[in-house]
Amino acid sequence: MEKIIKYLLIALMAVSIGLVAWAVFATPDGATVETATAVGANLYWGYALLALALIAAVFGACRDLLVKPEGLKGAIFSFVAIIAIVVIAYVVANGHDYQIVDLQNQGYFERGDTVITDACIIVFYVAMAGAVVAAIYSAVSDALK
Questions:
Q1: What is the DSSP string of 33-80?
Q2: Alpha carbon distance 8, 125 (integer Å)
Q3: What is residue 26's predicted lDDT score, i.e. its pLDDT?
Q4: How many CB atoms are closer than 10 A to CB 23?
Q5: Residues 98, 118: contact at Cβ < 8 Å?
Q6: Which of 43, 56, 104, 128 is 20 to 30 A removed from 136 (C-alpha atoms)?
Q7: Burial 113-133 (b: 16+ CB within 10 A, else e)
Q8: Which helix (H) or strand (E) holds 14?
Q9: In this predicted model, what pLDDT tens digit does every residue of 96-119 receive, in sequence order?
């Protein structure tokens, strides 16, 4: 099984490198249909890899919970914490009343779009702060051992 995964990862990496090379070297002079096609293919490939990663993460987590059910409490706590962060970010974003200028259409973006964007930014900030705190905690706890 490990050999299959190893070769699958090598194949995925080769396809990724090929697509990036195609997008970079398609037309160095300017934007053409071929460049747009190469960039579009890279975007769809990125979406496919993201979907595969999400499926693998969910499958792996479910498998681990079936093998070791004592981790169920931590998984439920993590899930509730993530939902709470997203809901709080949405409520905070919904409380803002500013408008974002849409330069292309000479107007403003719709309220729903700005709330979702602002909520995503807030969730990103919370995730990055959590990652920094976790890295500092890990470094300090390893240094004290």
A1: HHHHHHHHHHHHHHHHHHHHHHHHHHHHHHHHHHH-GGGHHHHHHHHH
A2: 34
A3: 76
A4: 19
A5: no
A6: 56
A7: ebbeebbeebbeeeeeeeeee
A8: helix 2-25
A9: 777 778 888 888 878 777 888 889
